[in-house]
Records
---
Amino acid sequence: MIPHIFITGATGYVGGDFLHVITAAHPEWKISALVRNSEKAAKLISEYPTIRIVAGDFDSVSLIEEEVKDADIVFQIADCDHTGVASAIAKGATHHTTDRPCWVIHASGTASFIFEDMREKTCGIERTKEYNDWDGLHELLNLPDDACHRDVEKIILAAGQMDPQRIKTAILSPPTVHVHDLSDLFLLLGEAAAAGGGNATWGNEGYYLSEMGSYAWGDVSRAIAQVACEKGYIPTAEVTNLEENEPVGETLGYGSLMWGSNSRGTSIRARKLLGWTPKRPTLLEEIPGIVDGQARALGIAALGGFKSLTSSDALMSVGLGVAL
Ligand SMILES: NC(=O)c1ccc[n+]([C@@H]2O[C@H](COP(=O)([O-])OP(=O)(O)OC[C@H]3O[C@@H](n4cnc5c(N)ncnc54)[C@H](OP(=O)(O)O)[C@@H]3O)[C@@H](O)[C@H]2O)c1
């Protein structure tokens, strides 16, 4: 049977990469994509003529419900904080039967692990707590209610728990993993679903982390400054320490949480069950290319360098270009 796929977020960073991967791997699969912007829809169709556009947004609740009803596999890769779309997907999945279950693969994010820093308003304090998706599964399924993304995860989990024979859920929670490695894992889960579950685990055992190593943002900042300086984009590799909350928060929005909190998780499940092997360059290895890309995007590379910018400006512009 050729599976019918329904995907949200196909015009985004993660979903866009995944759309490329899934259409290349399975050109025969029927793919429908929820797209809210007609210009972006036209671009998608020109790139992927076989996909079907579902024109709508997360307020198109009954439309989403109908699409999920018709789909075999749903990839929710748009907004892991939107309870409305999660509820619409959960409702659509209830139309499925044990003979034709609905496989729901939901992208979340490991900001869910930073709740202690949020509660205690700490920034730059090292915490050793590490989550894992194998023997630490129970903890992942029961994160506290004030954890980021938890409200949406609960909706997805509850859908799977309500009738595990009809609704098969998997939550994939990425950190700053290379987007191609992440797409590989979405694809492995999709292929497992298409095979009736495959080696993947679902529902109360369907929680997957996708880490490919750990790092501290301070090291990333220093590496960016070093590379940007070597390339002549900034005059010095010296890095200034920004004080917590101010001006970090002012300069970088949620900077103190993004760069000063702790999010540690180990991905065992995907490696063990699906043979997922992240093989792309690490974030630190990607920095020279990212710095060049940002310099080009800012029109600075063409000027031969942005000598007027400081290292923290460089961090901000490059930071926006990496997966958060
Ligand atoms: N990027 C990462 O490294 C990372 C890491 C961990 C978790 N995540 C999570 O993964 C998900 C996708 O991230 P991303 O980086 O790909 O985000 P993104 O580039 O901002 O893409 C978001 C996608 O969702 C669509 N979307 C957002 N709101 C919508 C709405 N109301 N109706 C219809 N479509 C809507 C966007 O459509 P438009 O193109 O029309 O805006 C776009 O296709 C997010 O939940 C994010 O938190 C991402």
Note: The pocket of NAP is lined by residues 9-15, 34, 36-37, 40, 57-58, 77-80, 107, 109, 174, 176, 323-324 (CB under 6 Å).
---
Amino acid sequence: MPLLQLVGVSKTYGEHDVHALKQVDLTVEDGQLVALMGASGCGKSTLLNVIAGLDDIQEGDIAFDGISLKGLSDEKITAVRGEKIGFIFQFFNLLSTLTVLENVTLPLELLGRQSHKQRMAAAREMLHLVGLEDRDQFFPAQLSGGQMQRVAIARALIHKPKLVIADEPTGNLDSDNGAMVLALLSKLNKELGQTLIMATHSAEAAAIADRVIQMKDGRIVT
Ligand SMILES: Nc1ncnc2c1ncn2[C@@H]1O[C@H](COP(=O)(O)OP(=O)(O)O)[C@@H](O)[C@H]1O
Ligand SMILES: [Mg+2]
């Protein structure tokens, strides 16, 4: 069974009657690194958001890890996604009043399963992985853009999600920091077997992918 399967997914933003996704079919196997490309406005972020359960769809179905979205309550969707998906945003979306350590542990706090000690140990392991163990007490404003994105990656991965979704993760970084973030994502995919779907405009990002999907005007074209 594939990790993720979309069948005939359509999404309309009602207020403005924008057909952002039109009958999208997509299958992603466990462990794949998929790059999602296409012009601005073609529907990449919308696709990632509906996969993550951050936005609803009007038609079709999305099955993730053997669970169909159809008929699930919002609450249940949030619970499934909170546990199994990690999201990396273009603008990092770190919480400015929390330290690096607190930002990274947040998903575990929300899941509320582990002890404080276990959460701290997991956070230190993640910060080590992204090379920022010496910045744990810093606030986001005290970091460079590349460091902020590495913290965001640590936060997205701390609960060991099956699927990592990244929306233009290097879109706001200079080329050196972008290259560092891509190397990290590629390493996580290879070493941890983490499935990754990444929207991107960059050829460097597409180059680390197993598979490149092109979108145009709300549809997948290749
Ligand atoms: N909240 C929204 N309300 C109305 N239209 C939206 C909203 N979000 C995105 N759109 C529209 O949906 C289309 C796809 O947008 P998006 O998924 O953000 O594209 P991309 O990420 O590829 O640049 C665009 O035409 C955009 O204007
Ligand atoms: Mg976008």
Note: The first strand starts at residue 4 and ends at 13.
